[in-house]
Amino acid sequence: NCIPHPYKIINKINLANPFRQIQEHIKAPFFTPIYYHASPAMTHSRVLMVGDAAIAARPHIGAGVTKADEDARALDQALENFDNINPAMSSYNNTHLTLKIIACEHSQYK
């Protein structure tokens, strides 16, 4: 086929040289969709989610480890502030959910 694939034409313009060279040797390009997910709650009954389990932003923002660390610290703080697990989990959910949704929405291409 003497007509180049449109994706390969775009790559010549948008990709760094090493990636461009790799792409030139690929017979057919592949695409991997990137999804995000924002759970409506980070807790339910006695189940608590942290990190990407609760809210998965796009991977290119590099926030997965940071989110998990922030979640662990927030949970630790909530458990220190309450004698009972239920209000601690509720506090964790209420203080953390809005921030995570904002981060997830910020990562979206619009």
Tell me about this structure.
The protein is mostly helical and 110 residues long. The chain is 52% helix and 7% strand. The strands form 2 sheets. A two-stranded antiparallel sheet has the order 1-4. A hairpin with a 2-residue loop joins strand 2 (43-44) and strand 3. The chain starts with 5 loop residues before the first helix and ends with a helix.
Please, what is the average pLDDT?
A: 77
Task: Compute the separation of the termini in Å.
Answer: 36 Å
Order of helices and strands: HHEEEEHH
Q: How does the overall form come out from the CA principal axes?
A: elongated
How many beta strands in the DSSP annotation?
4
- Spans of at least 5 consecutive residues whose pLDDT stays below 50 are none
Report the biggest beta sheet as strand number plus sense, adding barrel if it closes.
Answer: 2 strands, antiparallel
Share of β-strand residues: 5-15%
Q: Please compute the radius of gyration using only Cα atoms.
A: 21 Å
